[in-house]
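Deliverable D2.4 — example input (structure tokens):
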């Protein structure tokens, strides 16, 4: 009899009997014990297990748990016992995807401090005969101690319930996008609004492939679908996440959010939830996967929620995160979902289940999971908590003891360090002055502190100052200053940054004008963040505040205060995210579009505690900051995998805008970095970016940079301006030489240069370079008269083409030239004769590559007037139009290119492959009649990659960075 059969029979007879000791049997077999270990895929990662049918649970070591990505643990930490009676820590459990050969199950996996991975009895039963057990020949008792794990009775029962949930409701836990079957979302338009169609934004070359891949993924899962026409369209912004993935986000702040009515479905009041929770002892928390995207938009709403990308238009099929009515719509769904189930409460995508005992809790869980499955929704298991004794919910700790304020609210004040100099003391005194308006007791402690601010007094922090400092901290943490969150009161969020930290305060403004603090928050800056420009530090403070207080802010109106005026333009709600903003600011501005706030400027002395928190950072806060960042992000994350890394990895993700230049180009990123340090002007600019700009910049050379300060950032010690690398003076001549390699005109040189680089007066320098080029002077043309009667505009590619011959040219060859009137895309065929037969051959080649044009415009040359070519055009459905005799300017589109072509030949004909290089540069250069786009962008729908593309940085090796960071 196979061992698996015996094991299953034993378990069926003893599954309810959790024993305190287990008999250990040694199995003697007629074959070598290869079956004692088995390699299994856990969450897609290969793990080697010891097979042990005596183990009452399956577990992995803490090291293995970290290696597979540290999935979120649930359950109360407890003790396990080995056969010898030794206790060791059980850290918790999680639901894992376990794949054995072709069998895939979602199973409970425990994590232990012991260094072993055990494939225990529960897993053996689930996978049945997939392990390949040998036949048992004999069984005898053994003296050798074999490790077998036990778990306390209550925890065993909980694990059994969670396991049954995972098995019974497999569809709920499966990856992929859920689809609500009970309702569709409708966006109500304001009366009389006109459609807003925003053009697609330019896409950085370094992330183009990643964006296209993400658009394909969203299309495959049904979140978007391609369309050809739309009245409404919003642009997208790409965010490169710390895990290397690119997230595509919709920027509806450009028009749609102003045109739709706010869904005013009420969010639940925390006070009402607290009253019903009172007396509960068991708590669970559920998290919906990609919460909003699980709701389909109705047909009318899909028409207005379109997005415009470089790949064309897409109609959004699911409720997008950035639409301002999304919170109200989603809360309505949640209220319907939990209706009639006792002890279940929902605040947006945060579901909590409360009960007085485990049995009731089990019934509630199965009831809510049954409803979730029937409604077509899906749960993100790694973010769920089951059978907890206490949970954090809406900024409070809920437990069997009742509802308590989160200790974190007071922690930041308790950990404030004493001021170290007059500047820090002035910041702290600003707090006393601000809150002293509401709490008079604050002023009586300021005497000893005021003494140190006098000019003639030497800095000496004594007992009197320490006593006053601690007294003020007690007041800040007392009921005089703190209040509970009340959604009916006005919410004010204030955030500030210093050179080494950010601080934030969320407060209520009462009808009498008084303000009381709900919660304090702060974090110190890591090394990368300390290199941010001052505007980026201030922006980081606002984003940190909003993420930290997300549960209280999302779906509600609030005031966001800053003492940095330029952020009002960048984070304002009316004009969309500014393309010129630095990459970090763009990413943060997009995040803030998900919130309903009014941003206000206040002077520094009105910042209250936020300024003090940013300066008097606790020395212990480094570790806490990382935890806060992870929690804040995970609360707001709508990614499929929900992955988050620490701030070091986030900073590395920004470096996709900085890369190494092509080997043939004589300038690379290392040279730029080195010469930037040697350039006195740029070195000073770097210091201003990092430490803040002076109020007045009198030097004219620096004022040019000052006017663009919002666009400047430092990445990997190189200066970037609106995503373009700033070239130091010592390297500019080499760069100009590369740009002018094929002797293009100044307009085309400037168009290409502005794609990749910047320095002051770059346009003037390019014009001087072209003007001083001897080859360009020799081939200069005389001005051409403008067309008297221009051709009508075309609406699509290949609607009308203009053709002509060029030659015999300097090289003795005849060239046949075709220009698309819509995109200005040129095709040139060399070694031609001026016969109709050769012209037809060219159009046959064009037809196989691009299709046949609708109209051909030519002069009255014999090959074009020939009967052979006329019959060919009729056969292909092409209409012919002829220009006026002896007036070549009437076919000006092709004539202009012929002229350009001949001049380029004069300059470049001594080079190999000159024709392909000239065509490549022309097709990739912005064209004045295409609103700054290049022919390739209009004709192919994408930019062509030039040698200069290597100015864009290489992708970051996130696995290598993460491994290096973990080893630290």
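Example output (designed residues):
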């Amino acid at each position: 009899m196979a061992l698996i059969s015996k094991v299953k029979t034993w378990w069926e007879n003893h599954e309810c009997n959790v024993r305190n000791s287990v008999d250990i049997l040694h199995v003697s077999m007629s074959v070598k014990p290869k079956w004692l270990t088995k390699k299994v895929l856990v969450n897609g990662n290969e793990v080697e297990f010891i097979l042990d049918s005596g183990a009452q649970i399956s577990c992995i070591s803490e090291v293995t748990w970290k290696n597979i990505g540290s999935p979120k643990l649930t359950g109360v930490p407890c003790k396990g016992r080995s056969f010898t009676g030794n206790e060791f820590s059980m850290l918790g459990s999680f639901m894992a995807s376990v794949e054995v050969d072709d069998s895939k199950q979602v199973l409970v996996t425990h994590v232990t401090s012991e260094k072993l991975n055990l494939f225990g009895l529960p897993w053996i039963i689930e996978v049945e005969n997939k392990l390949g057990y040998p036949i048992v020949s004999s069984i005898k008792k053994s003296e050798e101690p074999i490790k077998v794990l036990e778990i306390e009775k209550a925890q065993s029962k909980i694990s059994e319930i969670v396991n049954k949930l995972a098995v019974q409701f497999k569809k709920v836990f499966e990856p992929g996008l859920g689809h609500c079957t009970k309702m569709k979302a409708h966006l109500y338009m304001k009366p009389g609004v006109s459609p807003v169609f925003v053009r697609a934004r330019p896409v950085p070359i370094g992330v183009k492939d990643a964006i296209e891949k993400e658009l394909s993924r969203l299309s495959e899962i049904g979140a978007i679908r391609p369309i050809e026409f739309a009245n409404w369209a919003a642009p997208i912004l790409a965010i490169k996440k710390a895990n290397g993935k690119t997230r595509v986000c919709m920027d509806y702040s450009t028009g749609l959010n102003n045109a739709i009515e706010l869904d005013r479905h009420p969010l639940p009041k925390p006070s009402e939830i607290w009253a019903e929770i009172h007396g509960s002892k068991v708590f669970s928390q559920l998290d919906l996967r990609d919460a909003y995207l699980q709701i389909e938009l109705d047909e009318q709403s899909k028409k207005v929620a379109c997005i415009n990308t470089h790949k064309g238009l897409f109609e959004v099929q699911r409720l997008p995160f950035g639409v301002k009515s999304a919170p109200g719509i989603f809360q309505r769904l949640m209220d319907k979902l939990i209706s009639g189930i006792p002890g279940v409460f929902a605040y947006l995508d945060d579901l909590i289940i409360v009960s007085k005992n485990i049995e009731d809790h089990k019934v509630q869980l199965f009831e809510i999971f049954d409803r979730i499955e029937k409604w077509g929704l899906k749960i993100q298991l790694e973010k769920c908590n089951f059978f907890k004794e206490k949970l954090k919910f809406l900024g409070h700790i809920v437990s069997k003891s009742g509802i308590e304020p989160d200790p974190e609210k007071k922690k930041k004040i308790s950990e404030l360090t004493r001021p170290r100099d007059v500047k820090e003391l002035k910041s702290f005194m600003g707090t006393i002055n601000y809150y002293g308006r509401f709490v008079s007791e604050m002023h009586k402690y300021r005497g000893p502190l005021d003494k140190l601010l006098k000019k003639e007094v030497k800095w000496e922090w004594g007992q009197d100052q320490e006593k006053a400092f601690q007294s003020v901290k007690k007041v800040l943490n007392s009921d005089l200053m703190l209040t509970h969150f009340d959604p009916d009161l006005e919410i004010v969020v204030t955030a500030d940054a210093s050179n080494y930290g950010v601080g934030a305060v969320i407060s209520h403004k009462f009808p009498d004008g008084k303000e009381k603090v709900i919660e304090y928050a702060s974090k110190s800056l890591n090394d990368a963040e300390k290199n941010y420009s001052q505007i980026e530090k201030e922006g980081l403070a606002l984003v940190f505040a909003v993420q930290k207080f997300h549960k209280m802010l999302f779906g509600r109106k609030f005031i966001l205060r800053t003492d940095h005026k330029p952020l009002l333009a960048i984070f304002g709600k009316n004009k969309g995210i500014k393309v010129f903003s630095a990459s970090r600011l763009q990413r943060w501005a997009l995040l803030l579009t998900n919130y309903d706030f009014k941003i206000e400027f206040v002077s520094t002395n009105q910042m209250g505690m936020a300024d003090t928190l940013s300066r008097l950072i606790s020395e212990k806060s480094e570790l806490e900051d990382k935890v806060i960042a992870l929690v804040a992000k995970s609360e707001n994350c709508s990614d499929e995998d929900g992955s988050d890394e620490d701030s070091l990895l986030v900073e590395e993700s920004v470096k996709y805008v900085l890369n190494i230049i092509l080997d043939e180009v004589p300038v690379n990123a290392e040279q730029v970095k080195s010469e930037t340090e040697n350039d006195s002007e740029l070195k000073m600019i770097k210091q201003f970016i990092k430490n803040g700009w002076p109020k007045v910049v009198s030097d004219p050379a620096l004022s040019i940079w000052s006017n663009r300060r919002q666009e400047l950032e430092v990445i990997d010690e190189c200066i970037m301006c609106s995503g373009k690398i700033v070239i130091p003076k010592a390297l500019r001549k080499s760069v100009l030489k590369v740009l002018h390699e094929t002797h293009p005109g100044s307009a085309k040189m400037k168009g290409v240069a502005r794609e990749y680089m910047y320095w002051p007066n770059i346009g003037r320098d390019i014009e001087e370079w072209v003007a001083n080029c001897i080859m360009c002077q020799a081939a200069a043309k005389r001005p051409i008269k403008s067309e008297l009667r221009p051709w009508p505009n075309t609406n699509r590619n290949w609607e009308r083409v203009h053709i002509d011959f060029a030659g015999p040219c300097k090289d003795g060859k005849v060239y046949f030239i075709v220009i698309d009137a819509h995109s200005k895309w040129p095709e040139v065929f060399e070694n031609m004769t001026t016969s109709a037969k050769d012209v037809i051959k060219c159009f046959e080649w064009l037809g196989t590559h691009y299709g046949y044009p609708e109209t051909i415009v030519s002069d009255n040359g014999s090959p074009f007037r020939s009967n052979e070519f006329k019959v060919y055009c009729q056969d292909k459905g092409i209409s012919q139009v002829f220009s006026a005799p002896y007036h070549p300017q009437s076919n000006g589109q092709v004539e202009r290119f012929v002229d350009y072509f001949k001049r380029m030949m004069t300059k470049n004909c001594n080079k190999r492959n000159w024709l392909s290089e000239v065509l490549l540069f022309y097709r990739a250069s912005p064209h004045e009649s295409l609103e700054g786009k290049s022919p390739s962008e209009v004709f192919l729908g994408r930019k062509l990659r030039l040698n200069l593309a290597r100015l864009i940085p290489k992708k970051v090796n996130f696995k290598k960075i993460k491994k290096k960071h973990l080893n630290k």
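The first strand starts at residue 25 and ends at 28.
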